[in-house]
From TrEMBL:
This is MFS transporter. It is a multi-pass membrane protein. SUPFAM superfamilies: MFS general substrate transporter. It is found in: Cell membrane. Pfam families: MFS_1. Keywords: Cell membrane, Membrane, Transmembrane, Transmembrane helix, Transport. Its main location: membrane. The chain crosses the membrane at residues 30-47, 67-88, 100-117, 123-144, 164-181, 187-209, 262-280, 286-307, 319-337, 343-366, 387-403, 409-428. It comes from Blastococcus brunescens. Residues 1-23 are annotated as: Disordered. Residues 1-18 have a biased composition (Polar residues). Residues 33-431 form the Major facilitator superfamily (MFS) profile domain.
């Protein structure tokens, strides 16, 4: 990848002027943190506007019937979002967080208009390429900015709030888009939400959000090595290539988190394209399909308000292992069911399992990555995680075409069980609780 030999260092860059010196902590940065939570809710809403509607649009307006072909828009979204995550991490370390956030929202402007006007499926795929860039740049950047603000002691809580806002908005917007589609048709009403979200996000990001790189510099100057020496090989001055290799393959906690993240979004990508079609086999109305689809990210989003903070108290590893196992069980319930009740129970359980894992994996990255290359580590992790969208869409489409919808869900259940085993064997506990360490716990030396 271009630029992997670069060594941008937080400590060597000019500090952005602010009205007061930066301080770490959730309470100390409550106003900015709340604004970032609101912006990330708008990021999630951009996905929610289309999740219920596009699979039905593919069948009803474009006459698409092959599952693999229908899932192309999910694959296009996942691949471009994964690539955008890399650039979000690299550019946020090099140029600052706020410019990346603003550029990400500029890519969102054409998306709802393209979906409204699309004369063929190619327009839908192209819109999801732009949406993937928007999501990768904006969501990754809000993650890094929140980690910057809160410091090491509250990372789990910060990620829980961030992901709860994002996926809660996915759920609410999916439900609202389903209602609008049933009342007013598949186009244009559901996609008017995206126009409003983009305008509000540009206002908040451009006028009210402040740069947070100074907070990362502050933490970098305060961190101390772990007493057990487990991170002695991870120092501040790593190249982009070294960061990529450590996060992807060689560092046990980072690489275990990366594979678990990929499987999480494999499940999400498969559900995005497949669940509405599976639920439609029972001749459920659009609004009820929208409710079923909203249950998964709804429980996922709300649950993270608890699980993120819980990981700060009990640690990361066992919560992740339990969450991956719960997802496997939930997918088995969905595959074995054939009506609203069973599918509702399965999607609620799937949301609960994902809530255990999603913010906790991000907290693991924050625990292990040095503040000087945190943005890039988050970016690499999210490259692998969001490739799961494409893997889930393609795998789900192929298996559904060859064997059936239920078989595709069973396959995802098996993959989730294997992922849980990998975390149990490979990941070590990354969180040092504040009661046992100094205020800089969780940073690497």
């Amino acid at each position: 990848m271009a630029g992997m030999s670069q060594r941008p260092s937080i400590s060597n860059e000019a500090t952005v002027p602010t009205s007061r010196p930066p301080r770490l902590g959730l309470r100390e940065n409550a106003a900015q943190f709340a604004l970032l939570v609101a912006v990330n809710a708008l990021v999630g809403g951009m996905v929610g506007q289309q999740q219920t509607v596009l699979p039905l649009l593919a069948q009803d307006e474009f006459g698409l019937t092959g599952y693999t072909f229908i899932f192309t828009y999910v694959a296009a979204f996942g691949i471009t979002k994964a690539a955008a995550n890399w650039f979000a991490g690299t550019f946020s370390d090099r140029f600052g967080r706020k410019p990346v956030l603003l550029v990400g929202w500029l890519f969102a402007i054409p998306v709802p208009l393209m979906l409204i006007l699309a004369p063929n499926w190619g327009w839908v795929v192209a819109a999801n390429v732009l949406l993937g860039i928007n999501q990768g740049l904006t969501w990754s950047t809000t993650v890094v900015m929140k980690i910057d603000l809160v410091g090491p002691a509250r990372r789990g809580m910060a990620m829980g709030l961030n992901e709860a806002a994002g996926y809660g908005a996915v759920a609410v917007t999916s439900l609202l888009a389903g209602y609008l589609a049933e009342q007013y048709g598949l186009r244009p009403a559901p996609f008017l939400l995206g126009i409003a979200y983009t305008a509000l996000a540009l206002l908040l990001s451009g006028v009210f959000i402040r740069e947070t790189r100074g907070h990362a510099r502050l933490e970098a100057g305060q961190h101390t090595p772990r007493a057990d020496g487990i991170h002695d090989h991870l120092h501040a001055d790593l190249t982009d290539r070294q960061i990529f290799v450590q996060t992807s393959l060689t560092e046990p906690a980072l690489s275990a988190a990366s594979q678990a993240g990929l499987v999480n979004n494999l499940n999400f990508g498969l559900s995005w394209g497949l669940f509405p079609l599976l639920f439609a086999t029972a001749d459920l109305p659009v609004a009820q399909i929208g409710l079923l689809f909203a249950l998964y990210p709804g429980v996922w989003g709300a649950g993270q308000l608890i699980t993120g903070a819980l990981s700060d108290r009990i640690g990361r590893k066992h919560l992740i292992t339990a969450g991956m196992t719960t997802q496997a069980a939930a997918l088995a319930v969905i595959a074995a069911s054939n009506g609203f009740t069973g599918w509702a129970a399965g999607t609620v359980l799937l949301g609960a399992g994902t809530a255990m894992v999603y913010p906790t994996l991000l907290a693991v990255i924050g625990d292990v990555a040095h503040p000087a290359w945190r943005g890039r580590a988050v970016g690499v992790y999210r490259v692998w995680r969001d490739l799961g969208y494409a893997v889930g869409a393609v795998l789900g489409g192929i298996v559904a075409d060859l064997v059936g919808l239920d078989a595709a869900v069973w396959a995802a259940a098996g993959i989730s069980a294997v992922s849980a085993a990998v975390v149990a064997v490979r990941m070590y506990e990354t969180h040092r609780r504040p009661s046992r360490t100094s205020s800089s716990a969780g940073s690497v030396g």
